[in-house]
Design brief:
The protein has 164 residues and is mainly beta. Helices cover 0% and strands 65% of the residues. It has one domain. Strands 3, 4, 9, 10, 11 and 12 form a 6-stranded antiparallel sheet that branches. A 3-stranded antiparallel sheet has the order 1-6-7, with no helix packed on it. It is elongated and about 95 Å long.
Length: 164
């Protein structure tokens, strides 16, 4: 680099730009999971304490996933531009990076289907009214996705209601 103004015209800037086509990945997912829920409520002490119970049935769960991989090219172009100190172009070289006779373009599609069997969930809980404006709801659920019924107390839900 020349810092003196008499030699500034000897300064050059070189820009190298490489452009390639990495390709495209596109995933489509389709899911069908019908569900039937049935519930009941019993007012043990009307206006004060109510017991709730219900079951949820899912006869099946189907998921279809299709993924498309599309590659543009294994090659890229490289452009080298040399500019003088005033920003004018002195030279430009464009080259193909890769062997032009062996461009390997691979497209592929993968498909995956997943089926889940019948599942059953049971939900139980209560509602306690402290007054007309204040209540607490609690619900716990358990299910049988793998053939054995499991009650998961870590998923207990509590809702405090305050009306004003």
């Amino acid at each position: 680099m020349y810092n003196h103004e008499n030699n500034a015209f000897l300064n050059t800037t070189t820009n190298v730009e490489t452009i390639g086509s990495p390709g495209l990945t596109d995933t489509t997912e389709f899911n069908v999971a019908p569900r039937i829920d049935i519930g009941a409520t019993y007012a043990m002490f009307p206006g004060r304490f109510t017991i709730n119970a219900g079951i949820g049935l899912r006869p099946f769960n189907y998921t279809h996933t299709a993924t498309r991989y599309s590659r543009g090219s294994t090659h890229s172009t490289q452009t080298t531009t040399v500019l003088d100190s005033n920003g004018r172009e002195i030279s430009r070289d464009v080259i193909l990076v890769g062997n032009p006779t062996t461009d390997i373009v691979t497209d592929r599609i993968t498909r995956a289907d997943a089926w889940s069997a019948f599942t059953l969930n049971a939900i139980g809980g209560f509602r306690f009214n402290f007054s007309e404006n204040m209540a607490v709801d609690m619900a716990a659920a358990g299910g049988a996705p793998s053939g054995t019924f499991t009650l998961n107390l870590a998923n207990v839900r509590v809702l405090f209601t305050l009306k004003f």
